[in-house]
């Protein structure tokens, strides 16, 4: 047995015991207890799968435009742990705390009159208009998919077992909760060596997040005087967004941050802690194989949409994200299914919290008006986005996006604010307080 196999066994062995126990328990439930049916109770029911920025925004907007419909959010987590703003806490920005990331979905549920069900949806039957969790089946009138992202480690050369081990050992922290807590501890306890951060291939949640995280962790190492360096591996030739601002910020962390563009990761040896990647040589116009040994890492894998989309027979783009009828949010496969947030792939929208919130509010209004027998006003309003990125504990940069229609096609206009300053950092914090208050207050 080699070290790689030993690692997989050590990491996955305990999990296998738990998983087998859960599997047996679930099997027992399947054989002894039929799913409990929840038919419609005489009024329209909107089922929302996903209780993130998009799903919660949809629920609020529906209620503001329709007082009668039953609204049910299905979310397996019982606490909302925000990814936006988490980099500030992970990077040790003074004045930030983990409590600022945590919210109870029950508070807006009480305020706006909807239900939150802490169960994972495992199947959708569009013909019967039902969704199924492990123990229940719910009928719906309209369905909203706000399922966010899932991880895909395959582009990094990892199989299913290695992917589970990688998530445990080097969590991406692209979802709230345990991954955030683990990454925070890793950064606090890292005293010397190479700390790798990877930028995902393809479309992924919050394009500037890996760059912001790299800058803030490097700043933290610098402030603590540690013999530690962040190495940021990026398959692109420059940062995905706000490249000028980020590159200028990186230059200020010389010795603490090394940015490696055009670095296409081909494999990660989890046991030896070695990343294999190809770097494009501009002189020879060829890729050159490289390896990098690291001491700890934040492995952010490629993102993909929930398998619920294809499992329900809903059309997806060539890259696997949900398709909708422009300029709205109804699936091209089913007018009774809406797709919002990061899972959406029809438009050139960044997968960000503000865009999810903006799309959610618009889609929610369309649904609420539709259920009330009014014109849903599809296309009357198009979403907008603002994205702030801290590049030091006291300065930030930003970008805005505004969707618009051109010959029946939805396009996006961007405006960059890449000169880092303190005023933008203040705006970053004000934005976060504002968007969370609008959802949870």
Task: Please describe what this structure looks like.
With 441 residues, the chain is of the alpha/beta class. The protein folds into three domains: 3-33; 37-148 and 305-440, FAD/NAD(P)-binding domain, CATH 3.50.50; 157-301, FAD/NAD(P)-binding domain, CATH 3.50.50.60. The protein is 33% helix and 29% strand. It has eleven helices and 24 strands. The chain has helices at 3-32, 53-65, 86-90, 106-112, 160-169, 178-189, 209-224, 243-251, 307-311, 353-371, 422-440; strands at residues 36-38, 45-49, 70-74, 80-81, 102-103, 115-117, 121-125, 130-133, 136-139, 142-145, 150-152, 192-198, 227-233, 257-260, 263-269, 274-281, 286-293, 296-298, 302-304, 330-331, 334-339, 384-390, 396-406, 409-421. The protein has a six-stranded mixed β-sheet with strand order 6-3-2-10-21-20. It has a four-stranded mixed β-sheet with strand order 1-9-8-7, with no helix packed on it. Helix 1 crosses helix 5 (160-169) and helix 2 runs parallel beside helix 10 (353-371). The longest helix has 30 residues, at 3-32. The chain is globular. Residues 1-26 and 28-32 have low confidence and may be disordered.
SSE blueprint and pairings:
Blueprint: H1 3-32, E1 36-38, E2 45-49, H2 53-65, E3 70-74, E4 80-81, H3 86-90, E5 102-103, H4 106-112, E6 115-117, E7 121-125, E8 130-133, E9 136-139, E10 142-145, E11 150-152, H5 160-169, H6 178-189, E12 192-198, H7 209-224, E13 227-233, H8 243-251, E14 257-260, E15 263-269, E16 274-281, E17 286-293, E18 296-298, E19 302-304, H9 307-311, E20 330-331, E21 334-339, H10 353-371, E22 384-390, E23 396-406, E24 409-421, H11 422-440
Parallel strand pairs: 1-9, 2-3, 2-10, 3-6, 10-21, 12-13, 12-18, 13-14
Antiparallel strand pairs: 4-5, 7-8, 8-9, 11-19, 15-16, 16-17, 20-21, 22-23, 23-24
Helix pairs in contact: 1-5, 2-10
